[in-house]
Amino acid sequence: DTGVSQDPRHKITKRGQNVTFRCDPISEHNRLYWYRQTLGQGPEFLTYFQNEAQLEKSRLLSDRFSAERPKGSFSTLEIQRTEQGDSAMYLCASSLLAGENGELFFGEGSRLTVL
Amino acid sequence: GENVEQHPSTLSVQEGDSAVIKCTYSDSASNYFPWYKQELGKGPQLIIDIRSNVGEKKDQRIAVTLNKTAKHFSLHITETQPEDSAVYFCAASKAAGGGADGLTFGKGTHLIIQP
């Protein structure tokens, strides 16, 4: 296992279509995070899971967005009825739930372009 | 919520010189301050972090300082090399690994190392 894997790396879609991104975290990591990054900005927190439980959602995560981590391993992020403002890089990160060693390991992201 | 300001947005230095990037944060409850390096087309990678019980931390050419009273922290890179060219992000959170609220990132500094 070489790190956090995200698929697809690039997605171009038309406004109104649904898209789904997948994230495979580092295998022993039980925390999984989704962030969104737009051009020239830092990543913005969307949501996170501890095992299969979704414990926190940002107000950035509108009702068109849904994230799941059904078996506590991989996660999916679905965006319904995409809008041009959804165009961004969607980053997944994972970490171990451990006292002092909480480093987040990021994947290389899934870039979404909504036409 | 937490707000992280980062300066400068672009920094150009001669190879071999030092580079300093500064960040301020607003939430006095934040106690974990990581720095990430992001190269083009890749996800952010942790380069160093500091916790609020420490004022300074060093790792080879990279050092971070933290002033909790003033709520600011800085990244210092000495003897800069061409491979240091990238976008650097500071971040803050209430727990290592991002915790329940996730990391709050600054807007990034594009560091350019001039040969």
- What string, H for helix and E for strand, traces the elements of chain A in order? EEEEEEEEEEE
Q: What gyration radius of chain A follows from the Cα positions, in whole Å? A: 14 Å
Written as H for each helix and E for each strand, in order along the chain, the element string of chain B is EEEEEEEEEEE
Q: What structural class do the secondary elements of chain A suggest? A: mainly beta
Mean pLDDT of chain B: 92
Q: How would you describe the shape of chain A?
A: globular
Q: DSSP strand (E) fraction of chain A?
A: over 45%
Commentary on this structure:
The complex is a heterodimer of chains A (115) and B (115). Chain A is globular. Chain A is mostly beta strands and 115 residues long. Chain A has strands at 5-7, 10-13, 19-24, 31-37, 44-50, 53-57, 65-68, 75-79, 88-95, 105-106, 110-114. The model of chain A has no long low-confidence stretch (mean pLDDT 91). In chain A, strands 2, 4, 5, 6, 9, 10 and 11 form a 7-stranded mixed β-sheet that branches. In chain A, strands 1-3-8-7 form a 4-stranded antiparallel β-sheet, with no helix packed on it. Chain B has no helices and 11 strands. Chain B has strands at 4-7, 10-14, 19-25, 32-38, 45-51, 56-59, 62-67, 72-77, 86-92, 104-105, 109-114. Chains A and B meet through strand 4, strand 5, strand 9 and strand 10 of A and strand 4, strand 5 and strand 10 of B.
